[in-house]
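lol ok so funny story. i was supposed to be doing the assay writeup but got distracted and ended up predicting the structure for this chain instead. priorities right. anyway since i did it might as well share w the group, maybe its usefull for someone
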Amino acid sequence: MSEPMLFFEDFTPGDVIELGTCEMTEDEIIDFGRRFDPQYFHTDPQAAADSPFGGLIASGWHTVSAWARLWIDALVAHADGRGSPGMQDVRWLEPVRPGDVLTATVEILDTRPSSRHADRGTVFIACKMTNQHGRVVMTCHGRGLFGRRHPAGERIPSRPEQDAGAGPSATAGSVEVRSADGVKLNLTTMGGSGPDLLVCHATGFHGLAYRPLAQHLAEDFTVWALDFRGHGTSGRAPGDDYAWSGMGIDVAACAAAIGAGRLYGLGHSMGGAALLLAERSQPGTFDRLFLYEPIVLPRGFFDATAANPLAEGARKRREVFNSRAEAIERYASRSPLGVMRADALAAYVEGGFVDMPDGRVRLACSAETEARTFEASGGLPTEEASAISVPATVAAGTVAAGVSNPGIVGPEIAEALPLGRFLGFAGLGHFGPLEAPGVVAAAAVRELLGDQLSR
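and the output, tada:
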């Protein structure tokens, strides 16, 4: 075996790679059919003429195998491949006939370092075969295991261990941080170099869902992401009380754990409000903030007794799927998650579910936890934003989804903050950081590091 040229780090989410072409000959179709799928329309040209397909067609497994051969020849043969835990959601969309020339492609959906083995990682892929007419004949999703180029080269956090009550978790790149009220929080480093930046997620999400955003930010920052209480791999809130004041406590604990001389914050929705709550309780925690549609509303809103439509919707969420691939397919085809970029959606699903003993997967943040977070009190009223003097950019999209449009109050929030300014994004909605990670990241870098970039 020759020395590998490709490693886990060489696969970039969002890349679409052409793997090559192959011709499906009649002899090969019949041979494969006789050996592995002996149905008459795969093995007998005369009998197949009277089949629903009107002639001989290749077994779907033959098409999958042809894709796999091209995948191996083009990439895996040159990589530190460690096998695969399996393929999912295989679909045969068009019959493949003798003489068809098929083109194989692979899209890199996501990459994830192993939590148990520092020398490898998982690459999540979408596989596709098209014929000479450009029609898609086969699709599926899969995972490949690949060795890492520098297993010890990834930054393993050390500073967070200095925090009182904090200790390293079993996950490489992550540490366990204890909040002031005892909640076990997951804090993950997402790579990069430069000043430290803490990314705070929206309700119902988790830190790893923002990996595509972090990959852009990592060119200028050392990026960290936390899982709020009840979300991702963090522990539940005491008494299942998800008051947003607790989210501010989570941010403060993670900021102290990072221990940076200069710390920046980027928050989305609830995450933006939590950054402001942490800064209000401990002024000077952050150097600058970038807040995408933070949930900061007039006094009394969080204590309203009227039904909360977001909480009602959360309680109706389906919690269990047969597989992550099934969850991706469902979410991609409907609102609200259907607006997310494919790699962000894949990252959300991969980190947002836990495996069940029967092979199915379940939401890590339960429907009830998400609903209680939407209903919770303890948020930051707009009227109290005037006490927070950190330079902050309040960003918002222009696209409304349903009856909810948090971005509409963005200018008012920016005006309430003594050092706030407003930035609008045409064509984006509330999920902007997950819809267009590169666009939002570029703006965040300009806003947070503008002074340094101009030097």
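Residues 8-147 form a domain with the Thiol Ester Dehydrase; Chain A fold (CATH 3.10.129.10). The first strand starts at residue 16 and ends at 23.
back to the writeup now i swear
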